[in-house]
Amino acid sequence: MRQLKKKRPIIYPVASGKGGTGKSTLVSNLGALLARKGNNVVIVDCDFGGSDLHLFLDIPETVPNLSDYLNGEITDLRQLLLPTCVKDLNIICGGNEMVGIAAVSEQSRKNLIDKVIELDADVVFIDLGAGTALNTLDFFSHIKSGILVCNPEPQSRVSAYGLLKNIIFRYITNSFRQNENIQNTLADFVAGPGRRNGRILDLVDKIDKIDTKLSDQIIENLKSFNLRLILNRVRRRSEIDDIQILVNLVREFLSVELDYIGFLRSDRIVLESCQKRRLFIIDSADAPASIDLTRITNAQF
Ligand SMILES: Nc1ncnc2c1ncn2[C@@H]1O[C@H](COP(=O)(O)OP(=O)(O)O)[C@@H](O)[C@H]1O
Ligand SMILES: [Mg+2]
Question: For 112, phi and psi rounded to 5 degrees?
Answer without folding.
Answer: -60, -45
